[in-house]
């Protein structure tokens, strides 16, 4: 896997974990950061990100068995698309699951999801200060999407 593919994969996964699919440009990055920024300091801390990731996991786990399957991810994504909160994703749910499925059982456990979202946060945090700003989210988007808006 080359660096571009890996970064792209990681970023797409972050979006799926954050509950939003492919934000388009600065406005979407702002909205995404704003949603997670619960204390309103203009940046998303690791703790705020973890809370948002956990909420998203619980939202996707429709049957509440503690695992998110590809079918559950598809259903959740379809619902968000209907609400206009998401657009078509270049990755299938199965591929997104594969990226974080450490034990290879084909579904994401809460632990796997938490580990995956932590590592995504680290990748987004460009200056490594423990916070991800909207600008960093946008920069991540630009880097992975080849600068296209
Ligand atoms: Ca904050
Ligand atoms: Ca489930
Ligand atoms: Ca698993």
From TrEMBL:
Matches recorded under InterPro entries: EF-hand-dom_pair, EF_Hand_1_Ca_BS, EF_hand_dom
SUPFAM superfamilies the record matches: EF-hand
Keyword S-adenosyl-L-methionine in record: no
Signal peptide: 1-28
Coiled coil: none
Keyword Membrane annotated: no
Pfam annotation, one family: EF-hand_5
Domain EF-hand: 48-83, 112-147
Region (Disordered): 101-122
Compositionally biased residues, Basic and acidic residues: 101-116
Spans traversing the lipid bilayer: none
PROSITE patterns for this protein: EF_HAND_1, EF_HAND_2
Keywords: Kinase, Metal-binding, Repeat, Signal, Transferase
PANTHER family to which the protein is assigned, alphabetical: 45 KDA CALCIUM-BINDING PROTEIN, RETICULOCALBIN
Name of this chain's protein: Histidine kinase
């Amino acid at each position: 896997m080359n660096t571009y593919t890996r970064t792209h994969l990681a970023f797409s996964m972050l979006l799926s974990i954050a509950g939003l699919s492919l934000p388009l440009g600065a406005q979407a990055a702002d909205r995404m950061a704003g949603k997670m920024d619960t204390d309103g300091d203009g940046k998303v801390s690791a703790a705020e990100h973890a809370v948002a990731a956990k909420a998203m996991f619980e939202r996707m786990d429709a049957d509440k068995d503690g695992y998110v399957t590809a079918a559950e991810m598809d259903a959740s994504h379809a619902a968000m698309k209907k609400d206009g909160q998401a657009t078509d994703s270049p990755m299938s749910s199965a591929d997104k699951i594969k990226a974080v499925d450490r034990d290879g059982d084909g579904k994401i456990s809460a632990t796997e999801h938490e580990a995956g979202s932590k590592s995504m946060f680290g990748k987004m945090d460009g200056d490594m200060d423990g916070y991800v700003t909207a600008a960093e989210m946008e920069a991540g988007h630009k880097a992975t999407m080849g600068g296209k808006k």
